[in-house]
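Mods, move this if it's the wrong board.
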Amino acid sequence: MGRRVDVSGVSGRAMGIAKKVLAPALILVAATFLGRAVFGGWSEVREYEWSFDFSYLALSVVLIFLYYAQQWGGWRLVMHSFGDPLGRSDSAAIWFASILGRYVPGNVAMVAGRVGLCQRRGIPARTTLASMVYENALILISALLITAATVPLWPPFEYKNYALILVALAPAGLALLHPAVFRKASDAILRRTGREPLSATLPFGRVMALLVYYVGGWALLGLAFAALAASVAPVEFAEVALLVGGYAFAWEVGFLSFITPSGLGVKEGILFVILALVFPAPVAALLTVLSRLWQTLAEIAAAGAVWAFAKRGGLRI
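Not the wrong board. C-alpha cells:
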C-alpha cells in the first residue's frame, strides 16, 4: 500500500509559506504604489485646496473611540450569551489587550491572546473561540450590509460589480450562523483540533439582534472616516455614502485576503481605488496612508488607556 499523504497538513504548510512570502510582498507593493502616487503627483498635492477643519478631526476621534467601545460591547454581549462570568473591567481589559495582536504576522496572536487571557479566568478555550467566530462573522456580515446599502449611491466605476459580489456573501454568512449549521461546523473543527465540542450555540434571533448592533458599529466607523476626510479636504454630502461604504468594502477585501496582518496593504489598495473616484489620485493616496495611521493610533491609544486603567485597578492582564 502507498503511504498516505496528509493533504490538510500539506495545504496548511503551503498556506503558511504563501503568507510568509506574499504578505511582505503585498505590503511592499502597496507602500511603493501609494508612495509613488503621492510623491509623483506632489505638485498636485501642493496645489490642492486643502481645508483643515479641527472640528471634523475632533468628531472623527470621538466617533472612532465610540466605535471601539461599541465593538468591545459587542464581544461582551456575545460572551454573556454563552454565560461567561467576566465583569466589565475584565472583559474590557481582555478585548483591548488582544486587538493589537491582529498586527502580528500570522493572524493568530489576537486569537491566542484572548483565549489565554480568558482561560486565566476559568473560561474554556472552546467558548472563547466560539465567541470570536461569532464576533468576526457578525463584523464581516454587517460590513457587507453597509456596503450593500451604500453601493447604489456610489459613482460608476469598473470595479463596482466586485462590491456587489461581496454583498452577495451576506446571506451565505447568515446561513452559516444558524445554530444547526454553526454547531456541526464548529464541532467538526474542534474535534479535529482535539478540543471538546461546544456546550451551546446562540439562538438565531439573538444572532440577528447582534447583527443589527454590529451594523451600527460600521455606521460609526464609516462616519468617523468620512469626518477624517472632511477634516483635511472638501467633502460633498453626496460623497459621504461612498466614504462610509467604501471604507467597509476595503476592510472586507483586506479581511477576506487572509494574507497580511489586519489586511495591511490589501485594504489600502482597495481604499485608494475608491477614494480616487472623488479625489485626485495623489490626494487619494495621501488620505489612504492617513487613514491607516489614524486607525492604528486610535487602536494603540484605546488599548493603552484601558490597559493602564486595568493595571491601576489591580486587574491581571
